[in-house]
Amino acid sequence: MTTTATATKQFISADQLLEHWQGHRNLTRRVIESFPEKELFEFSVGGMRPFAKLATELLSIAGPGLKGIVEGKMDAFDDETAAPKTKEELLAKWDSETEVINLYFNQISQERFQETFNLFGQYEFPVYQNILYFIDNEIHHRGQGYTYLRALGIVPPFFWERF
């Protein structure tokens, strides 16, 4: 009997994953920009949190999560400390966190993506799954933002225009 070894081909590179993620972040930033200031912090549907709180949660996960992965230590999740109070502050924090993501993401070696990491003391998954969680959570919350914008009579950005 003859066996043939097959080389596993990589589906997506780390650079492509980061570019994909940053495309989502660009789109979420445009959703934040679409909100009137007052509604960004106060409007909700069906008892869900206002979009500013959802965006603040995203800020509290991605950058701190990547930093924890790179440094090998993780603080408890905290989305209340230094929550932005204005749309301008939220957008500035969003832009600042984008740079934090770029900095730490690029320090994760290919091998580390497969290592298990306990994110915020709650989620024990491989690093790549934690990163996919960051992206999935952002898409989920952005969908809530789209619902809010539609309820306010505002047409949200096209979801496919990420850059």
Automatic annotation (TrEMBL):
SUPFAM superfamilies: DinB/YfiT-like putative metalloenzymes
Organism superkingdom: Bacteria
Name of one Pfam family that matches: DinB
Residue runs in coiled coils: none
Family annotation (InterPro entries): DinB (IPR007837), DinB/YfiT-like (IPR034660)
Keywords on record: Metal-binding
Record-stated family: Belongs to the DinB family.
Record protein name field: DinB family protein
Organism: Chryseobacterium zhengzhouense
